[in-house]
Specification:
Elements lengths: L1 H16 L21 E2 L7 E2 L5 E4 L4 E8 L4 H8 L8 E10 L2 E12 L2 E11 L9 E9 L8 H9 L2 E2 L4 H7 L2 E3 L6 E6 L3 E5 L11 E8 L8 H10 L4 E13 L2 E11 L5 E11 L2 E10 L3 H13 L1 E3 L3
Antiparallel strand pairs: 1-9, 2-3, 3-4, 4-8, 5-6, 6-7, 7-8, 10-18, 11-12, 12-13, 13-17, 14-15, 15-16, 16-17
């Protein structure tokens, strides 16, 4: 069961992070973090930050440490899977409480055979409780071939896992991973950048989007090539918003930053039942789309709408 859970999680994270990790210079005097990640550690041996996945690898010895930085809601499923009685393919299974620099979690260790190679494995799971890091569950997967145990002993791996440290979301690093740049914030601040290719901006001292205006900028694939289908596509995107009594007040095609686009304005009830107004702009191109959604209280709309448009017009594709 643990194996079945890890496969989709690892696959999803590899897609998101492939090619995004960067090498950091200097000695490992303190924990290193994958670019944009909230979980780091002091890597043992010749492990370096991977360019292929979030974590570390010793390419020559085929040793890997994969770090999954997940929402806190994932922790219960991780724990249930880790403590399931049936763990096919893993022998010598051991489960124990394990303290690390930023908290206490569970360490699961064992041995498996894969493609004729004997691998020693360690899985560390934990979550953030209190402090300045919120909404975080972690799963760290260490794999060491038997031939590499002279360098990567059980003691060395445990020492590395004991150094696991959390940090607040590194917004500037995360923004640098997005496929677009925000050149105009129009007085908003970036609240969160998501590895799926989205950023949330808001105005106000808290992250409570039920009481503050906000902007969501995101990208996606699968946009229709036929211009006649784009209006329905944009409406379908808007219909997925977690808002009540959504009513479209206007919808039209338009040029956005020189490209084909579609604007929808609407009214709805917010999470607290308060009346809100919103605008969604979708810019099409290359089989994909850029989406900008601005939401504010009805009474603030005249003040916020020009700022929403300024953010929209300041979104530029990131060039390599």
């Amino acid at each position: 069961m643990l194996h079945r859970l890890l496969v989709p999680l690892l696959a999803a994270m590899l897609v998101i992070w492939a090619g995004m990790a960067a090498l950091c210079p200097g000695a490992y005097a303190e924990p290193l973090f994958p670019l944009g990640g909230r979980v780091g550690l002091e890597p043992p041996g010749d492990l370096k930050l991977s360019k292929q996945f979030p974590g570390f690898e010793d390419v020559e010895r085929k040793v890997t440490i994969t770090i999954l930085d997940l929402p806190a809601s994932a922790y219960v499923d991780l724990e249930n899977s880790a403590f399931a009685k049936n763990q096919p393919g893993v022998s010598g299974l051991k489960r124990e409480s394990f303290a690390f620099a930023s908290g206490v979690g569970f360490l699961i260790s064992g041995r498996s055979q894969e493609n004729g190679v004997t691998l020693d494995k360690w899985f560390l799971l934990g979550n953030a409780v209190g402090g300045n890091v919120q909404d975080l569950a972690l799963l760290i997967n260490v794999q060491v071939p038997e031939a590499a145990r002279a360098v990567y002993s059980d003691a060395a791996i445990r020492k590395a896992l004991a150094s696991v440290t959390f940090r607040p979301p590194p917004l500037q690093e995360q923004l640098g991973l997005l496929p677009f740049k925000l050149t105009e914030l129009a007085g908003f601040r970036v609240m969160k950048a998501l590895p799926v290719g989205a950023a949330i901006l808001t105005e106000g001292p808290t992250d409570d989007l039920s009481t503050q205006p906000y902007v969501i900028v995101s990208v996606g694939s699968g946009a229709p090539e036929n211009p006649d289908d784009r209006g329905n596509f944009a409406r379908d995107l808007l219909s997925s918003a977690p808002l009540r009594e959504l009513t479209v007040t206007s919808a039209e095609t338009m040029r956005i930053s020189g490209g084909s686009g579609y604007e929808i304005r609407a009214q709805a009830l917010g999470l607290l039942g308060n009346p809100i107004w919103l605008a969604q702009w979708v810019r099409f191109g290359g089989g994909g789309f850029l989406r900008v959604v601005g939401v504010s209280a009805k009474d603030d709309w005249d003040r916020m709408f020009p700022r929403f448009r300024a953010v929209r017009d300041g979104v530029e594709p990131r060039t390599k």
